[in-house]
Amino acid sequence: MENIKPKVAIIGTGNIGGAIARGLAQGTIIEASDITCSDHSQHLLDKLKAFNAGIEISVDNVKAVREADIVIIAVKPWVVKGVIDEVKTALDYERQIVVSIAAGVTFEQLLSYLARPSGFNRTTPPVFRVIPNTAIEVLSSMTFISACNASKEQTDLILRIFNELGNALLVDERLMMAGTALASSGIAFALRYIRAAIEGGVELGFYPNEAQEIVVHTVKGAVDLLLKNKSNPEQEIDRVTTPGGITIRGLNEMELSGFTSSVIRGLKASR
Ligand SMILES: NC(=O)c1ccc[n+]([C@@H]2O[C@H](COP(=O)([O-])OP(=O)(O)OC[C@H]3O[C@@H](n4cnc5c(N)ncnc54)[C@H](OP(=O)(O)O)[C@@H]3O)[C@@H](O)[C@H]2O)c1
After folding, report:
1. How much is the pTM?
2. Phi-psi region of 142 (alpha: psi -120 to 50; beta: other; left: phi over 0)
3. Contacts (Cβ under 8 Å, ≥6 apart) of 158
4. How far is the C-alpha of 250 from the C-alpha of 29, rounded, in Å?
5. How close is the Cα of 17 to the center of ligand 1, in Å?
6. Quick one: which atom of ligand 1 is closest to the CA of 103?
C-alpha cells in the first residue's frame, strides 16, 4: 500500500474529527481532495472548506463513506452505534477499514455494532481504535492505535498516516484508556501546568503576554532537552539544581503542596 493514496471519510468533524481532517490535509499520504467530511453541522463543514477548499464536505454519512478506503468515526461515544447502524449496509468489509476515535468504545462493542449475518464473505471489517489528541491539527499528536482483524499491511498504513500527524504508538487494547489519560487528557494537564506557571509569572511581575511567552518557550526547551539528549527528567533537573540553591527550594515547595501526587491522582482519575 506504500504508493497508494487512500481515500478517507470522516464522520463527525467536531474538535477531533475536524483536527484530523486539517492534519491529514497537511500531510503527504492523503490528498485533501481524497478526504470527505460528514457532519450535521454545516458551519463546521464550511470551516473545513475554508481551511482547505480541496476537502469534500457532505451532510450525508452514507454518501460520504461509499468511495472511502478508510472510514473514520469521530462522534461522541454514545453516537457511535447510531452512525454504524446508518452506514453499515453501505460499507464493503472486503475493501474498507473502519477507524473509531471514540474513547472507551471497545472492539467488542464495535464488532457487535458492525456485525453482519453470516451470508456475507466477511461479517466484520478490519477495525482500528485510534486515540489522538488535539495537537493532531498541528501535526504534533501523541496517538495510540490498537488493531483488530487487520492485516500487517493495513496496520502499517494506519501507523504511517498517524505517524505523519505526530507520533503514533501501536498498543494492546487494554492500554487504550491509560493512553487516553496520559496523552489525550494529557494535553489539558500540560496546559494547566502552563496556565499555573503564567499566573505565577504575573505574580512575579511580568505582564500576562510576556509570562505566556516565557513559560511556553521554557516548556518547549525542557521538551527539546529530553528529545535531543534522550535523557530522563531527573538528569536534566540535576543540572539545574545547585545544592542549597533556589531551584531545589522551589521544587521542594511544590512537592510539599502535592505536585507529583496531584498529577498522578489526576491521571488515575481520568482513566
Ligand atoms: N476531544 C479530544 O481531545 C478527543 C481525543 C481523543 C478521542 N476523542 C473522541 O473523539 C470523539 C469526538 O469527540 P469531539 O470532542 O471531537 O466531539 P464533538 O466536538 O462533539 O464532535 C462530534 C461531531 O459529530 C457530530 N455528529 C453527531 N452525530 C452525528 C451523526 N449522526 N452524523 C454526523 N455527525 C454527527 C456532532 O454534531 P452535533 O454537535 O451537532 O451533534 C459534532 O460536530 C469522541 O468519541 C471522543 O471520545 C476526543
Report:
1. 0.91
2. beta
3. 70, 97, 99, 128, 130, 145, 147, 150
4. 46
5. 7
6. 47
3-state secondary structure 122-135: CCCCCEEEEECCHH
| Segment 41-71, tens digit of pLDDT | 999 999 999 999 999 999 999 999 999 999 9
Compute the chain's Rg from CA coordinates: 22
Q: Is the CB of 77 under 6 A from ligand 1?
A: yes
CA distance 80 to 102: 8
**pLDDT of 119:** 66
Ligand 1 proximity of 39 Cβ (cutoff 6 Å): yes
Yes or no: say if 172 and 148 are a contact pair by the CB < 8 Å rule.
no
Give the SS3 label for residue 180: helix
Is 17's C-beta closer than 6 angstroms to any atom of ligand 1? yes
Taken in order of first residue, the domains within the chain and their CATH numbers are: 8-171 (3.40.50.720), 180-269 (1.10.3730.10)
Minimal CA–CA distance to 16: which of 141, 117, 125, 119? 141
Pocket probe for ligand 1: among 11, 39, 146, the residue whose CB has the most ligand atoms within 8 Å is: 39
Residue 84 CA to residue 271 CA, distance in Å, equals 25
Cβ-contact 91, 30 below 8 angstroms: no
Nearest CA to ligand 1 atom 27: 75
pLDDT tens across 193-231, in order? 999 999 999 999 999 999 999 999 999 999 999 999 999
